[in-house]
Write a structure and sequence with these properties.
alpha/beta; TIM Barrel; 12% strand
Length: 307
């Protein structure tokens, strides 16, 4: 379980506690810590960020893009995320991992191998990708991060069956590394209709079949709700049926990949309740681009998914 930093206590909260030098020092240190966190945040954000997560059945995280326009560096972002009750941030580079640790956060998914265009379906890249997996899985394990990402790659004339065979060839070796270190490899499902024409892992049927072939608890899908709503819908039934093959989840509004508000077609509370009712213990990371005040949008997204 993630460690939660204790908030400082005011005099009313510690009334009844013996007034000792030690207790006074502890209280003073807590107050200094709280004010230090506030000082990290940009002035315009200090009044907007209290604890937003109340129920915590969904382990919520963010991608940096959710705060586009907020002018926050990683230190400020981590302080804000921790204060809100989020568990971590996606796609943070290694140099910033100590900052997340300092604020009690997790790098919820980090680099693994492959890209959208050149992915695991390209056999000519397998030697390089295996080296990438070795390096990145070991690094993630050292920080106790749970997930590394993998991408299937562009079709480029490769049939879906051949692409699956090619992905299986490298993954059957990569999962041995993942199993040794206790880290999950998560391949992302993306839409090929709007955002990523040609991307191979574009349906849950293809992705979950690959999971079955690899047959390792350390290989799963990154189920992106935005992308799969565009490609096939039927979100709740698909998630419930295949939750054991899902290692990470992304959110965004459809259409447009913006806020989780009433301008988009997915009813996120119902989807989140369906996830919470399964045995899924992974993260749900928001990956939308805000069209208005980024902090107000983020608070709305977190409240919407805190079911």
């Amino acid at each position: 379980m993630r460690k939660i930093h204790k908030r400082y206590q005011d005099n009313d909260q510690i009334s009844g506690t013996p007034v000792t030098r030690r207790n006074m020092l502890i209280s003073a240190a807590g107050i200094v810590g709280a004010y230090s966190t506030l000082a990290i945040l940009p002035k315009q954000l200090r009044g907007q960020t209290g604890r937003v997560v109340k129920k915590g059945r969904i382990k919520q995280a963010i991608c940096r893009g959710c705060l586009r326009g907020a002018s926050m560096d990683i230190e400020q972002m981590a302080a804000m995320a921790s204060k809100m009750g989020l568990v971590g941030i996606d796609f943070i580079g290694k140099n910033d991992w100590p900052t997340l640790k300092k604020h009690g956060l997790v790098a919820t998914i980090v680099g693994g191998a492959g890209s959208i265009r050149k992915g695991l379906n390209d056999k000519s890249m397998h030697a390089k990708f295996l080296d990438d997996f070795r390096t990145n899985i070991k690094a993630a394990a050292e920080y106790k991060w749970r997930n590394v990402i993998a991408m299937a790659g562009d079709r480029k004339g490769i049939s879906d069956e051949q692409g699956m065979d090619n992905c299986y060839t490298i993954l059957k070796e990569a999962v041995k590394i993942a199993e040794d270190y206790g880290v999950n490899i998560c391949m992302e499902l993306l839409n090929s209709k709007v955002n990523h024409p040609g991307y191979m892992c574009d349906t849950s049927t293809w992705g979950f079949e690959l999971c079955k072939r690899v047959n390792s608890p350390r290989f799963k899908m990154l189920y992106d709700i935005y992308h799969m709503q565009i490609m096939e819908g039927d979100l709740i039934a698909t998630i419930r049926k295949n939750i054991n093959y899902i290692g990470h989840i992304h959110t965004a509004g459809v259409p447009g990949r913006h806020e989780l508000d009433d301008n988009q077609e997915i009813y996120y509370p119902a989807v989140m309740r369906a996830i919470a009712e399964t045995d899924y213990d992974g993260y749900v990371a928001h990956e939308y681009t805000p069209t208005r005040d980024p902090m107000k949008s983020l608070i709305q997204a977190v409240e919407t998914c805190d079911v």
